C-alpha cells in the first residue's frame, strides 16, 4: 500500500521517460495517487491526465512565466483533490501574490507560441550537437537515438525545450576536477547563452547539474543517473537557432 507515487517525466536532467500508462494501474492497485511533475514536457507536449495521472504539478516559474520574473507553482487535479490542497495552503500560508498571479496569467497568453518555437529549436540544436565530435552523449526525448524514443513519441507530442549533453574531452576528463574545470570553461565562454539554474526561459540558459541541481547527491548516485562532471543542461530559448549553435560552437572551440 502507498499514499502517493510522485514522478517526473522526462527526468531532470537526463530526460529519462516514465511510462505513465504502465505506472497508472500499478498506482491504483497500491491505493496511491499518481502525481506527475510535467515541467520538462509542459502541458503542450504531454497530457498526464490522459495517461492515468491523478494530479499534475508545474513550477510556473519555468515555461508558464517564461521570462524569469516571478516565482510560482500550479497544482492540477480533481475538485476533491484541489479542495484538499487549497485547505492545506490556507492553513500553512503558502500563497501566490496577486502581482505574481497577474504576471503568470498574462504569460499564459503567449506560452503556446513560445514553447512550440523553443521545442522546434531544441530539436535542431540536439540534432546538430549529436553530429559534433566534441560532444559525447546527447539526450533529447525526440531524438531517434534516445534509448526510450519509441515511448517518448507515444507519450509526448513535443520533445520539450531542454537538451542535455556531455562534452567529449578525454584528456581533460581524466580526473573529476579537470573535467569540471573544462566544462566550466566551456560555459564561461558562452556569450549568447547565459548561466542559470532556471529553464523554460525566453533566453537560452545552461547549468551544470553535478554542482547545482544534483550537488547533494554522492558521486556514485550521480553516476547511477548518468550525470557526469562534463554534463551540461541547456534550456533552449527564443534566440535564432543559428545564433545559439554559433555560440555553442565558438565556446567548444575555445575549450
Can you describe this structure?
The chain has 255 residues and is of the alpha/beta class. It has helices at 20-29, 42-45, 79-92, 98-130, 149-155, 176-189, 219-225, 241-254, and strands at 4-8, 33-37, 55-59, 73-77, 135-139, 162-167, 194-195, 205-207, 231-235. The protein contains eight helices and nine strands. The strands form two sheets. Strands 5-6-9-8-7 form a five-stranded mixed β-sheet, covered by helices on one side.
List key phrases describing it.
255 residues; alpha/beta; five-stranded mixed sheet; four-stranded mixed sheet; 8 helices; 40% helix; 16% strand
End-to-end separation in angstroms reads 52 Å
Sheet with the most strands: spatial strand order: 5-6-9-8-7
Derived from helix and strand composition plus strand pairing, the structural class reads alpha/beta
**Unreliable residue stretches:** none
Largest beta-sheet details: 5 strands, mixed
Specify the number of helices. 8
SSE string, helix = H, strand = E?
EHEHEEHHEHEHEEHEH
Write a brief structural summary:
This protein is an alpha/beta fold. Helices cover 40% and strands 16% of the residues.
Topology:
Layout lengths: L3 E5 L11 H10 L3 E5 L4 H4 L9 E5 L13 E5 L1 H14 L5 H33 L4 E5 L9 H7 L6 E6 L8 H14 L4 E2 L9 E3 L11 H7 L5 E5 L5 H14 L1
Parallel strand pairs: 1-2, 2-3, 7-8
Antiparallel strand pairs: 3-4, 5-6, 6-9, 8-9
Amino acid at each position: 500500500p502507498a499514499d502517493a507515487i510522485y514522478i517526473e517525466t522526462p527526468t531532470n536532467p537526463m530526460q529519462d521517460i516514465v511510462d505513465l500508462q504502465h505506472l497508472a494501474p500499478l498506482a491504483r492497485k497500491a491505493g496511491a495517487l499518481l502525481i506527475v511533475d510535467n515541467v520538462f514536457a509542459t502541458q503542450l507536449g504531454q497530457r498526464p491526465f490522459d495517461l492515468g495521472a491523478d494530479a499534475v504539478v508545474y513550477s510556473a516559474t519555468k515555461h508558464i512565466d517564461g521570462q524569469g520574473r516571478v516565482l510560482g507553482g500550479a497544482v492540477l487535479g480533481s475538485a476533491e483533490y484541489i479542495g484538499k490542497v487549497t485547505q492545506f495552503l490556507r492553513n500553512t500560508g503558502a500563497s501566490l501574490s496577486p502581482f505574481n498571479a497577474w504576471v503568470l496569467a498574462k504569460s499564459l497568453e503567449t506560452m503556446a507560441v513560445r514553447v512550440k518555437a523553443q521545442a522546434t529549436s531544441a530539436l535542431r540544436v540536439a540534432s546538430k550537437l549529436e553530429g559534433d565530435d566534441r560532444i559525447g552523449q546527447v539526450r533529447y526525448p525526440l531524438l531517434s537515438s534516445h534509448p526510450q524514443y519509441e515511448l517518448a513519441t507515444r507519450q509526448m507530442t513535443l520533445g520539450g525545450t531542454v537538451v542535455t549533453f556531455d562534452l567529449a574531452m578525454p584528456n581533460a576528463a581524466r580526473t573529476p576536477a579537470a573535467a569540471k574545470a573544462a566544462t566550466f570553461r566551456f560555459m564561461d565562454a558562452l556569450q549568447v547563452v547565459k548561466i542559470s539554474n532556471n529553464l523554460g526561459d525566453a533566453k537560452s540558459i545552461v547549468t551544470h547539474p553535478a554542482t547545482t541541481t544534483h550537488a547533494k547527491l554522492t558521486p556514485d548516485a550521480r553516476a547511477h543517473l548518468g550525470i557526469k562532471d562534463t554534463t551540461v543542461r541547456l534550456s533552449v530559448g527564443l534566440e535564432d537557432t543559428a545564433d545559439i549553435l554559433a555560440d555553442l560552437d565558438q565556446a567548444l572551440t575555445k575549450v
